[in-house]
Amino acid sequence: MKAHTRVVVIGGGIAGCSTLYHLTQEGWTDVVLIERNELTSGTTWHSAAQVTNFGMSQTMVGLKSHSINLYKELRDDVDYPVSYRHGDGGIRLANTEAQMDGYRHFASMARGMGVEFEVIDAAECARRHPLISTDNLLGGLWDGNDGDIDPASLCQALARRARNAGAEVYRNTPVIGLTQHKDDSWTVHTEQGDITCEIVVNACGYRVNEVGAMMGVHHPVASMEHQYFVTEDVPAIAEAGHRMPLIRCPISDYYFRQEKNGLLIGFYEQGCKTWGMDGIDPHFVNALCPDDLDRITDVLEGAFARMPALTEVGIKTVVNGPITYTIDGAPLVGPIRGKRNAFCIIGMRAGLGEGGGHGWMLAQQIVHGEACYDTYGALIRAASQGTRMSS
Ligand SMILES: Cc1cc2nc3c(=O)[nH]c(=O)nc-3n(C[C@H](O)[C@H](O)[C@H](O)COP(=O)(O)OP(=O)(O)OC[C@H]3O[C@@H](n4cnc5c(N)ncnc54)[C@H](O)[C@@H]3O)c2cc1C
Questions:
Q1: What are the 10-residue block averages of pLDDT along the chain, 391 residues in total?
Q2: CA 44 to ligand 1 center in whole angstroms
């Protein structure tokens, strides 16, 4: 490990890898990433990894557009192609006029950022996704940019590009302490030795507050268990001969997308279950929580009603893992309040979709002092004033 660098990014999930890569893109190449285990061994490896362009503010739409454009570029890199399915599109469903009005508003707002969504009626939803029922459905918002990405190869590709530009990545190197000096520089203590730097970045996912505590900060971030499962093959999908778009249902709180010839179905659980509040086992690495399907039965009923073909197939795999949330669901990206030369990119609940863009905005803030979009909504002070953007 080198003795000194300009920036130490702690954590090698999507947040850390994206920040490292974008620092090099902004011209800072004497930067390092320190990861306690392997890259993506926190939440990122098991993410459903859907990437949408939808956002409830122009900043969110803009940074998600950046993610999408970056991921397309990485997909097309012949030296290290990343698996990114883009172009099947996605529909966000609605069953009330208020939701449809909201979609019209979001579509016109996105247009201001150069992104085209379509507001479509129920018949058009069913034409684009022939397996859904139109019962109790008014229509939806079509996002032609919806897709999903392989999270592990995405992070490896970002780290690879950063390394090629001069950055260094230290794996299997847990950070165990942080000391700030009178000139505001830092010593980062690791199990493999110390490294001094001008700036530290906390990108530690569900371990955010372990590293926060090393600098005397408690971040308002909690982890919840979040589940999806993958079904056996759905005969109607196999017979369709074309890929189905992704469906998100804010009415019944689930999403489903095609995974091979089956479906991946995720749930926005209403009976929320916190995780790791009394400390996290240090050996919880590349790990999952026990399956907990009882918690999703009510949401599952809505998914069955919308897609009757689901009732005919069994479950192949269940994935239940920790996902981090802030008070209002929007991540915290920017300077750490009350600290100098310390930044965070934390509380990511949709880190694959947003991570490309947030890493870009954070790198701009570190290098230039401000980002190209209004970042107020991602700041901690906005969280306490209730004026933050949501995704
Ligand atoms: C079931 C599920 C489905 C999901 N589906 C989607 C989806 O469809 N779309 C989407 O956009 N998002 C989705 N998410 C959310 C997304 O996966 C996360 O937002 C994202 O992976 C978080 O990335 P991260 O880099 O912030 O954290 P992590 O991936 O947890 O990375 C943090 C890293 O920090 C390292 N670290 C921690 N402590 C230290 C230390 N002391 N020293 C050094 N390194 C340390 C960890 O080892 C880890 O590698 C899903 C999440 C779950 C659980």
A1: 98 98 98 98 97 94 97 97 96 96 97 97 97 96 97 98 98 98 98 98 98 96 95 92 93 92 90 93 97 89 92 95 92 94 96 97 97 80 50 50
A2: 4
How far away, in angstroms, is 38 Cα from ligand 1 center?
Answer: 12
Domain coordinates in residue numbering, the chain: 4-49+151-221+328-385, 88-144+222-324
Q: Best mutation site among 43, 64, 208 for ligand 1, i.e. most ligand atoms within 8 A of its Cβ?
A: 43
Hey, what CATH class is 4-49+151-221+328-385 in? Answer: alpha beta
Residue 178's CB is within 10 A of a number of other CB atoms, namely: 22
**Architecture of the domain delimited by 88-144+222-324:** 2-Layer Sandwich (3.30)
Nearest 5°: the CA angle 372, 378, 379 is 105
Angstrom distance (rounded) from CA 9 to CA 20: 7
Q: Are domains 4-49+151-221+328-385 and 88-144+222-324 of this chain identical in fold?
A: no
Mutate to test the pocket of ligand 1, among 39, 50, 178, 352 (most ligand atoms within 8 A of CB): 352
* pTM across the whole model: 0.96
Tokens for 227, please give them. Answer: 């589940």
pLDDT value of residue 121: 98
